[in-house]
Amino acid sequence: MLDTLKTINLNGTAYKANTYDAIVVGSGISGGWAAKELCEKGLKTLVLERGRNIEHVKDYHTAFKNPWDFTHRLVNTQKDKEECPIQSQAFDQGNKHFFVNDKEHPYIQENPFSWVRGYHVGGRSLTWGRQCYRLSDLDFEANLNEGIAVDWPIRYKDIAPWYDYVEKYVGISGRKEGLSQLPDGEFLPPIDLNCIEAYFEGSVKKNYTDRVVTPSRVANLTEAKDGRGPCQYRNLCSRGCPFSAYFSSNGVTLPAAAVTGNLTLISNAIVAEVIYDKEKKRAIGVRVIDTITKQETKYFAKIIFLNASTIATASILLNSTSEAFPQGLGNSSGQVGHNLMDHFQLAGASGIYEGFEDKYYFGRSPGSIHIPRFRNINAETKQKDFIRGYGIQGKGERLSWNDLYAQTEGVGASFKDKITKPGPWEVWLGGWGETLPYYDNKITLDPVAKDNWGLPILRISFEYGDNEKAMRKDIKQSCKEMLERAGFTNINAFDYDQPPGSAVHEMGTARMGHDPKTSVLNGNNQMHEVPNVFITDGSCMTSSATQNPSLTYMALTARACEYAVEGLKKGLL
Amino acid sequence: MNRRKAIIGLVGLTGAATASYFFYTQTKQEDLNQLDSNKLFIAELAETIIPRTTTPGAKDAKAEEIIILWLKECTDRKTRNNFIRGLEKLKSRCQAAFDKDFMHCSAQERQALLNQFEKEEKPFAPIFGKIQKKFLGTAFMPTLKEYTTKAYCTSFLGATQGLAYVLIPSRREACIPLQTSQKSWATQ
Fold first, then answer.
1. What is the pLDDT of residues A359-403, one digit of tens each?
2. Which of A216, A331, A352, B148 could bridge to A370 as Cys pair (CB 3.0-4.6 Å)?
3. By C-alpha distance, which of A564, A444, A568, A529 is closest to A24?
4. What's the CATH architecture for A1-61+90-171+247-343+438-463+506-573?
5. Are the Cβ atoms of B178 and A74 closer than 8 angstroms?
């Protein structure tokens, strides 16, 4: 590999000009954090983003549009559905530009798996659901206790200070509940529950001792913070927030990295592989393809952070083959690309409540309600049909025209009157369930098919197991039961068989573990076999837990950055 | 052709001939120009569903324009075909019932006709309803009602006068008394 270096280092300046202290691959939620932390610690940092640039506020061109300002009034066209069969399930006209075109960026589904992506600066931190929950030792110890996959090499005490650190910076609204399975954090005031949500909270408190309803913990600012926000209650977050009232790389971490003067951000730059030097036993840089000119460039650094997202990071590793690593960088364990997980969702129930007809709300909440995991927490809540558990997210509102027209018979003035007045109150509940790490759920590189840039096309193979199927049944049942006990009627218990991937919580393809033989990363998100490469996106997750995972990626990233910079100072990397 | 029979033809395997005829009629492309040439008719249909009262109606909101655009660009072919055929069927039914063109009918006659259509086109029970939609597309009247409602409620006049709309609420009041004659929020 030293030869590769020489070929591009013809006059000595190219190497120097293309050399940084650190390279961060990807600018999404974890890449943004890596950029901020490394830049603030004084490292000249290069961030490589495969998509185009998105400038905070300036490029949120749909943010202030009214429904009637859109040519198709936010309805996707048939062409959208044909060209983007996967992404169009997630986008509308208001945020379509933050999702890839499936035709331009194909992948092979060995069985259905929705891979929802955004290739642009900021990545999915622009369109994320913003729910932020801590993992607990119930999660970190589960694999060990149950003999599943491998043990997490960290425990709650290792990450807790880093949760504090990122939460204080991100700004998360929420309410403390004192639950061991969902530790409290550093919260801004919660977004208040509306009448029906508050009623439902009270009903659950009265009818159950094992669970609580709490306002969802979201990265939306209920108070102004560091010149950002507060939330304007538009509930149009995924178009980009002109008020900087929710957390994104574009609005928060990348600007923070930039003010240090240490940041270089290059967009339209696909990382094809990480270059490994077998003499130094270190990665020395990355090979990059310009998405527009298709020209190749190499960049070099002392340390490399891979934050390309779970599936893309694994594909970079698998594509980084060398004499030392014929199976892909740091992949002697053979685990890279395996153990893919996603939360499964959309089993649940909805119901109508007769009452509170004289109550309403003002403003559109970007939050929801959350029922933290209540199954298999302790001996009393142990289930016989499944291990692990699920969290429930939900929303209460008065039905409006978009529901009422289908259930209102007739036409004319009375029809109009009914659909333009607030309808009955409805609560909707859905479970987000833990998926176990199965070795066979994996991504691989197709040996033949190539994309527009000559890179191998990915194959995804994924199936849920019996544990997930059993849990779905319980989710449906428990949601129905809570609504029944609260006196709801017209209860509709559902189990929509959505393709895996739909929760957009991919995890696990380069897992952390104690043993280099069975895992890819150690307890500091450092590759066992390549000590100057760190991976802190979702691929590091040893188990999926039930919690929305972004907060954990952020905390692990900040923690790994500190470890990496200490290592550099001590001359260990 | 009787719809229930058609479904049984597909699901219950009563004959390949039925199925292939059915497939032909369902996937054949109807002439899209029929939508533009029926623009005034569609506008009156929309107005029959959401008439002008103390607030603007579907015609004020130019609902027909977006309805036609959705039919052309955002609708599967079977549903669109059903719609185009539904227009013709409605016209001839009107002629038969009132011996005049829909455009010359009174508001009451128009409403009676649409109500009748709605009853006839009611989807089957859930399980059949699902199969029905998959193989036959959505029927005329449900599409007309859905598109009229959406067209009206997402229009400037509909959202701001027929409903209540605030682009930037700036604050959240989670549980407040309902105001007298409070309209529903146009967006959630």
1. 999 999 999 999 999 999 999 999 999 999 999 999 999 999 999
2. A216
3. A564
4. 3-Layer(bba) Sandwich (3.50)
5. no
